Amino acid sequence: MPVNKPTIAADALNGLDLLASAVLLMDASGCIAYSNPAAENLLESSSKILVGQTLADLFVNNEELELVLQQAREQQFADKRLDMTLERAGRDALQVHVAVTALDNPATPVLIELRENLQQLKLDREERLLDQSQANKELIRNLAHEIKNPLGGIRGAAQLLELEIPERHLKELREYTQVIIKEADRLQTLVDRLLAPHRHPHIVGDVNIHEVFERVRSLIVSEFPNGLKIRRDYDLSVPEFRGDKEQLIQAVLNIAHNAAQVLAERMKAGDAELIFRTRIARQITLAKVRYRLALDLHIIDNGPGISPDIRDRIFYPLVSGREGGSGLGLTLAQTFIQQHLGLIECESRPGCTDFRILIPLP
Ligand SMILES: Nc1ncnc2c1ncn2[C@@H]1O[C@H](COP(=O)(O)OP(=O)(O)OP(=O)(O)O)[C@@H](O)[C@H]1O
Ligand SMILES: [Mg+2]
Predict the structure, then answer these.
(1) Max CA-CA distance within the chain?
(2) Pick from 68, 78, 141, 170: CA 20 to 30 A from residue 299's CA?
(3) How far is ligand 1, taken at its centre, from the CA of residue 314, in Å?
(4) Is the pLDDT confidence value at 5 over 50?
(5) Which pLDDT score, from 0 to 100, does residue 289 have?
(6) Test site for ligand 1: of 133, 316, 322, most ligand atoms within 8 A of the Cβ
(7) Strands (DSSP E) along the chain, which ranges?
(8) Which residues contact 131 (CB under 8 A, 6 or more apart)?
(9) At residue 4, does pLDDT exceed 60?
(10) SS3 breakdown of the chain: % helix, strand, coil, rounded to 5?
(11) How distant, in Å, are the alpha carbons of 1, 138, 187, 191, 347 from that of 180?
(12) 181 CA → ligand 2 middle, Å
């Protein structure tokens, strides 16, 4: 650690080195005199480079922070806290809580503490997710329509061709026309799934979320009868709400179905577990709108976790980590939940994958 300012007590800096929040000590001329390892991490720069730099070197919009720094140097306050978005040249902006403390030390009169504002980051991420899924939806719909039209023609032509095959060649050549017809049918099913959420009207009625979970439970149990335990952790005070029951069943089923599929190994061992949890969440912000109450649903499995190479993209169409998977289950689930003004999030590590569905309640 470069303690190149003899006036800074070395043992005080040792303490700062251990802190999880980023700390910058500023000297009297407004340059960084010391940065702790957390600051190196946050600013993606080494202490060697940071020391001697000014805030203007680090942030494009440094004026507000510079002003507060000036006030701290003049001892106008003891400490001040702000939420800021610090823009950086060529890098992502930092969403941070900033605490500026005036110190009683002429060599380093100001301490700046930066902590990432996780709530803000989360909101930004959700907003990006929504934008993206809107773009996805349009792309899918257009693409599916483009595929659908010629597909009917291809299938029809193959059937006609089959009729034209002379009897003596029918046996060997029919194999080929059948391949065309079968593959066209497979594509047709795929396209129909892609278009499903746009085709069916959103039918709204009173929904009891536990009926939704129970339906999914019976479907999963009948498909995976052995070695899978489904634990229900229901909050029975969750009220009925207005929604499209069939869409909600499909969304929960797609998530639970994925979980059951990745639990295959554990089912053999007999300790595969799915948890269905229902709760009420308070003060939730979804797509920038604040709701007093929301349904807070979880589908949790003790499988291997989502593989890291697709983790950020699982809600995109055609992204699959599974042999034979079409990568549409989660895209559809997300679309259905968004039609209820809600959102699906996911946290995953080996042994615990938690899909969380949030749906605002009136
Ligand atoms: N609970 C989970 N644990 C581990 N991986 C998961 C889990 N849920 C989803 N995944 C991963 O996310 C991928 C995408 O899931 P999605 O349901 O969208 O498509 P799919 O299951 O591959 O195909 P489809 O559902 O269309 O038949 C899966 O292939 C799987 O790799
Ligand atoms: Mg799936």
Answers:
(1) 101
(2) 141
(3) 7
(4) no
(5) 85
(6) 322
(7) 22-26, 32-35, 79-88, 91-102, 110-116, 205-207, 228-233, 241-243, 272-286, 289-301, 343-349, 352-361
(8) none
(9) no
(10) 45, 25, 25
(11) 69, 28, 11, 16, 41
(12) 25
Find out whether 274 and 229 touch, Cβ atoms under 8 Å: yes
Residue 125: the pLDDT is: 74
Q: CA–CA separation, 360 vs 104, rounded Å?
A: 50
From the DSSP assignment, how many helices (H) and strands (E) are in the chain? 11, 12
For residue 196 and ligand 1, the question of a CB distance below 6 A is answered with: no
Ligand nearest to the CA of 308: 1
What is the rounded CA–CA span in Å between residue 164 and residue 315?
45
Judge if the beta carbon of residue 334 lies within 6 A of ligand 1.
no
CA atoms within 13 A on the CB side of 34: 25
The burial class, CB within 10 Å (0-12 / 13-18 / 19+), for 275 is middle
Burial of 34 (0-12, 13-18, 19+ CB in 10 A): buried
C-alpha 294 to ligand 2 mean position (Å)? 25
Q: How far apart are CA 112 and CA 26, in angstroms?
A: 8
Q: Residues with Cβ < 8 Å from 86, sequence gap 6 or more?
A: 58, 59, 61, 62, 65, 93, 94, 96
Long-range contacts at 57-63 (CB < 8 A, ≥ 24 apart) = 58/86, 58/88, 59/86, 59/87, 59/88, 60/87, 60/88, 60/89, 61/85, 61/86, 61/87, 62/86
- Answer yes or no: is the C-beta of 299 below 6 A from any ligand 1 atom: no
For the segment 109-142, what is each residue's pLDDT rounded down to a tens digit? 999 999 988 777 777 777 777 777 778 778 888 8
What pLDDT does residue 201 have?
A: 67
353: amino acid identity, one letter: T
Encoded amino acid at 115, one letter = R
Beta bridge partners of 294: 281, 360
The pair of three-digit structure tokens given for residue 341, joined into one six-digit string: 């003004």
Q: Could you tell me if 328 and 194 are in contact, meaning their C-beta atoms sit under 8 angstroms apart?
A: yes
